[in-house]
Fold each of these.
Amino acid sequence: MTLPFFPTDLFDDDRAELLDIVHRVGLAPDQKFILGERTARFEAAIRDSVGAADAVACGSGTSALTLVLRAMDVGPGDEVIVPAFGCAPLAAAPALLGATPVFADIDPWTMVVDPAAVARLVTPRTKVIMPAHMFSVMADMPELRRIATGMGVRLLEDSAVAQGGTLAGTPAGMWGDAGVYSFVQVKTFGMPGEGGMVVTRDAGLGAAVRMLRNHGQDGKSRFVYHRIGYNSRFDEIMAEFQLYRLPTLPRRLRRRARIGEYYTGRFAELAGCGVLAPPPARDGRCYYVYSLLCERRDELREYLAARGIGSHVYYPAPLPRQPAFAPYTRPGDAWPAAELAARRTLAIPIYPHLTDAQVERIADAVCRFAKES
Ligand SMILES: *Cc1c(COP(=O)(O)O)cnc(C)c1O
C-alpha cells in the first residue's frame, strides 16, 4: 500500500518532543507516573476548552463509559439504549455492569442512531440513553436530549470519535449528563498510548467518576475506599504530550474537514452509480473517518487496494448480530438500517497529513471505479 488506511508515521513530527517528555517525567524528583500535576493540567485544559464543570482523565474511552454508567448506578435490571451499529464498548460497558443493552436502529445514510427508534424503546426500566457519534457525523443530540429529558432518563454522549466537533454551538461531549473522549491513536486527538476522558456539567457526577477511577479513594486519604472502584488512571507522559499537542488540534481537525468536504464534492455525482457520500454539512461534523456507502463494497475495496490505496470496513456486522451480544436481543427484533450499513460501508483515508495530491488520487480512484464498472 502506498497510501495505507492506518498510516505508520502518525507521531513522527513529534518524536523529539515525546522523547524529551519521557526524560523530563522519568527524571522528575516527584517520580509521579500516573495522576500527577500533568494529568491535572491536561484535565483543566480540556475542561475549559469545552466549558465543562469537570473533566476526568482515565484509562481508555471504554473505561470512561464504564465509569460514568457506574457513577449513574447502572446495574442489574436497568436498560441502556445503545446504537445497533458501532463498536463493542457501547454494548459491553452496560452488559458488564449487569445491565441490558437495548439496540436501536440507525439512520441509513448518516449511520448514527435514529432518535425515533430510541424513543420507541424507552421503558420504565430504561436508565440511560447512550448515543454515539459515528465516522464524520454527530448524532442528533438536540432530539435525543429532548427524548431523554421528556422521559426522565440520563443521557451519556459517546463522543469518542468527535472530540473537537460542535453541533449548534455546543461541543461534542457537552450535550448530555456526561460525554466521553478516547485518545487511542486512531482517534482525532489520538496519542501513542491508551487513555480516555469524561467531561460533564454535573460536578457531583464528575466527583463520583474521579473516585471510581482510582479504587474508590477520594484523592486525600490513601487506602480509604469509599466505593468499589476501578484502576483506570492516566499516564503523566501522555498528559504532557497531549498538552503539547492540544493547541494544534484545531488545525488538524480543519485539515480533516477540508479533505472530507473535497471528497463529498467529488462524490456528489456518484450517487446514481452506487457510491453514496455522507450528507454535506458543516455543523455537527467531525471527520474522524470518511465512510462511503457502496453497493459493491468489496469490489471497491479490491479496486482501491490494487491501486495501492488502503480502506477499512467499520463495522462488518451490527452489534446485536455479534455472538457476544446476541443474548441481549429479543425474538422479532430487527435493525434493517444497521444490517444494510454493515454490508455497504467502506472508509477511505482522511488523516490530516495526506497531501492534496494524495487526496486527489484517492478521489480519482473512487470516481473511476463508480463510472467504469
Ligand atoms: C474508540 C471508541 C470507543 C472506545 O475507546 P477506547 O479508548 O478504544 O477504549 C468507544 N466508543 C466509540 C464510539 C469509539 O469509537
Amino acid sequence: MTMPFIPYGQHRIDEEDIEAVVRVLRGEWLTQGPAIAEFESALSTICEVPHAVAVSSGTAALHCAFAAAGIIQGDEVITTPLTFSATAAAVAYCGGTPVFADIDARTYCLDSREVEKKITARTKAIVPVDFAGHPADYSALRAIADKYGLLLIADSCHALGAKYQGRPVGTYADMTILSFHPVKHIATGEGGAVLTLHDRFVEPLRVFRHHGIVKMPEQGGWYYEIERLGNNYRLTDIQAALGLSQLKKLDRFVERRREIAALYNRAFAPHEVVTTPYEASDVRSSYHLYLATLDVERIGKSRREIFDALREQGIGVQVHYTPLHLQPYYAKTYGYKPGDFPRAEAYYERAITLPLFPHLQDADVHRVTNVLLNQVSYATA
Ligand SMILES: *Cc1c(COP(=O)(O)O)cnc(C)c1O
C-alpha cells in the first residue's frame, strides 16, 4: 500500500473563507474596493503598526519597499544569501546592488557582525530575513542601522505571527514585508503587504503600487501626473477578503505550527545526528518551516540520498534554500563564488525541510519522524 504524499507546506481554506470570497464576487468591487482597506487595517492592528499597504505578492511588496526607500542605481543593500531570490532580486529591480553577509550559525538569520563588515559609503539599507519564522537579531541590527544612518527593511515573509522581545513582526523595522502565498501563514492565492512605522513611506508605497500615478484633482478630475514609474501591484478585493478571513485564524495556525515543531523536536532530541531548530529565548518563532540539519558525516549518507529516500516514501521534504551567491545569476552578476559565505554553505549542505502546516495530523508527524529516523538511525545504533 502506498501512503499518501505529505507536502512540506499547504494552505488551509474553510467554508468561512469561501463565503467571504463569494460575498465579494456578488458585490460591486473586484479590485481596490473596501476589502483592501479592511484587510490593511486588520493587518496593521494585528502587527501593531500604524500602516499596512497590501499588494499583489511578497515580491511586489519588496519592490515597493525598496522603491519607497529610494533605492537607485549604485546603492547597496545588505542582505542574507540564505533567502528566496525575490529578496535580492527586488534590490536589483531598483538598480541597486544586493550585497550578501553571512548568517548566524544557530538562527540562520543575518549575523549583525558580518553586516557591519559590509557597510560602505553606498550602503542604504539592511534587509534581514526572519528565516523559517525566527525573527532576526533586531536589537543589534537596529543599533548598526542607526549608527550608519541606514534603513532597516525586514523580509518577514516567513514570520507573520512571530514575536521578538514580546512584540509582533512589523514593529522592529522601518518597513516589513509579508507574503500570503499558499505555503505561508495565511493565504490569499498570491498576495503581500508592506507594513511601516513611518507616515512618509505610505504615499510612495501606494503610488508605486499603482503605476506611479499621483492624482491632482485641483487641475481637473481626470488629471494625474507620473513623476517616477510604478507598476501594477494591486491586490484584488477577492484576495483581500480571503486574507481578512484567514487572518482570524492566524493565532490558531501559529499555535498548531508550534505544536508540530515541538513534536518533531521531542522525537529528534535523543538523536545527535539530527539538529533541531534553535529558538532564542527572547523570540517566539512562527515556524513557517521546520528545518532539521543532518550530521551527514556521522550518518554516512549524503543529504541527497536521505532527501530522495524520504521523497520515495511520500514525504514531501524540501531544501530552503540554495544560498543565492551560488545561483548562477548572482554569481555571474556580482562575482560571488563558493566559499564566500561558509556558514550559509555549511547549513545548506545539511539542511532538510520537513512537512509543517496547521492541518498536519500528529500521525503524519510520527510517520515523517519514523521515516527520517530510519534513514539516519544505523549511524546512531
Ligand atoms: C515567499 C517569499 C518571498 C516572496 O513572496 P511571494 O509572495 O511568493 O512573491 C520573498 N521572500 C521570502 C523570504 C519568501 O519566503
